[in-house]
Amino acid sequence: MRDKILKAIQAAATKIIYSDSRLISAFKERGIKVVSKVNIREISLECPENENFGDYSTNFSMTEYRKLAERTKSHVPGGDKPGIIWAEIASNPIELAKKIVSELEKNPELLEIIKKIEVAGKGFINFYLSEKALLAELDNINRQGNEYGTSSLGKGKTVIVDYSSPNIAKRFGIGHLRSTVIGQSLYNLYKTLGYKVIGDNHLGDWGTQFGTLLYQIDSKGLKTSELTIDELEKLYVEFNAEAKSNEKLWDIARAWFKKLEEKDPKAREIWEKVVDISLKEFERIYDILGVNIDYAYGESSYLDKMNGVIEEIRESGLLTKSQGAEIIEFKDLPPAIVVKSDGATTYLARDLAAIRFRIGEWKPDIFIYEVGSDQTLYFRQLFETVRLLGWKGNSEFVHVAHGLIRFEHGK
Q1: Phi, psi at residue 68, to the nearest 5°?
Q2: Which residue, 97, 117, 133, sits at the end of a domain?
Q3: Are residues 196 and 338 located together in one domain of the fold?
Q4: Using N-to-C axis directions, what is the helix angle for 265-289 and 248-261, rounded to 10°?
Q5: Which parts of 30-78 fold into alpha helices (H)?
Q6: Quick one: which of 36, 233, 306, 326 has the fewest CB in 10 Å?
Q7: Is the separation of the CB atoms in 293 and 282 below 8 Å?
Q8: In this entry, which stretches build a coiled coil (predicted)?
């Protein structure tokens, strides 16, 4: 029904505005591009909060009036009066709205679903659906079931939604909960629009922080099979507290992570068990939420691709040395570290490896990252790096940012 109303508004406004020879002549005299019809994307059609204002309402006559009055403005005293030609067609938004309504009321297809159209306020046009139309739509919903509201808009296009992405060995935070819920909603919406949608849970399962965990579990003689997600997170907290008075612990932790990178059997066994404990907890939460993410390619999934990606970045000439680290410098953004001074890779390097894989494996038209707004700068750096590397092509990269919830103990 919404589409039918939009098309009716487009047709009525086009007839009033772009079929008037005086206005067309005025456009041509001023070198203004003449279009054949109103752009339907410029028509805002909303559902009013107050049902007294109808089932649908548009402010189109107000926005269109201001736009065309400005475009046809004559050099008359005061300089702020609408163009004479335009003023002859409609002296104010209310008059334009009334003319549009007059045309709408001649549309038999529209009148099949609308029982009343009225002009309100400063030029709003309100639409009231007929009971017959509502009952017919309910019947459509009942017959079509899950297919109701689907579209072929995205047919032939692929979208990848990167969402949830909790950290291994840590509790499922509220930020990850929001990313999961919003990300799943985006996934569902794009799927309904006919896109091929791929959901990827980019787990935080790698990094130097795992060295602290491996050290704690080994030094305390803990059995990983008996640990819970809460106990794993507590080990992080205890390590950081101890390291404040004994900085050498950081060297030990880094040594443990190096063992993990070198595929030391003991380090690998502990890490794999920790990942398994975490995934079981995450799946428990996903089951409650009704979320089922297609893939869970964590950061560790791209380790075998990392050297090739970093070498490609080096060959592009983007990497420069800075205090032992390798960084990318941008024109309008702060520099970003790709390889740390100790040779460890960063989130940026691992995200670039993930993008390289996704381009080769899925060839997405749209990359969507549902992550908190505190990561806005990071994603600007990531997307700019992709552009500078020439990987972007015709793909669109989007950071859908959710806001932060702050508590007394922090965000």
Answers
A1: -75, -30
A2: 133
A3: yes
A4: 90
A5: 60-71
A6: 36
A7: no
A8: 222-249
> 375 is in which domain, residue-wise?
158-402
Could you give the number of structural domains in the chain? Answer: 2
One DSSP character per residue, 271-289 reads: HHHHHHHHHHHHHHHHHHH
Is residue 380 located within the same domain as residue 246? yes
Is residue 216 within 8 Å of residue 239, measured between CB atoms? yes
- Rounded-to-integer distance, Cα 365 and Cα 40, Å: 24
Is the backbone of residue 290 left (phi > 0), alpha (psi -120 to 50) or beta? left
Q: What is the pLDDT of residues 114-129, one digit of tens each?
A: 999 999 999 999 999 9
So what's the pLDDT on residue 79? 41
Assigned domain for 174 exists = yes
Round to whole Å and give the CA distance between 144 and 110.
23
* Tens of pLDDT, residues 334-386: 999 999 888 888 899 999 999 999 999 999 999 999 999 999 999 999 999 99
Of 133, 168, 189, the residue at which a domain comes to its end is 133
* DSSP element (H, E) containing 45: strand 45-46
Measured CA to CA, the distance from residue 56 to residue 48 in angstroms comes to: 6
- Of 40 and 46, the structure prediction assigns the larger pLDDT to 46
Is the domain of 335 the same as that of 256?
yes
CATH number of the domain residue 71 falls in = 3.30.1360
Residue 11 lies in a domain: yes
Strand ranges for 90-204 from DSSP E: 114-120, 124-129, 158-162, 196-200
Based on the domain organization, do 8 and 108 belong to the same domain? yes
Distance CA 20, CA 9 (A): 17
Q: Which 3 state secondary structure label does DSSP give 318? A: coil
Q: Which two tokens stand for residue 119?
A: 């002009």
Q: How many secondary structure helices (H) and strands (E) does the chain include?
A: 15, 11
Within a domain: 268: yes
Are residues 102 and 184 both part of a single domain? no
| Euclidean distance between CA atoms 27 and 36, whole angstroms | 12
Q: pTM for this one?
A: 0.77
238, 306: one domain: yes
Going by pLDDT thresholds of 50, 70 and 90, the confidence category of residue 38 is confident
Residue 243 has pLDDT above 80, yes or no: yes
Distance CA 24, CA 368 (A): 42
Sequence letter at residue 113: I
- Cβ neighbours, 10 Å, residue 329: 12
Q: Are residues 185 and 257 in the same domain?
A: yes
The residue written with tokens 């819970």 in the block is 228
What residue type is assigned to position 139 of the chain?
A: D
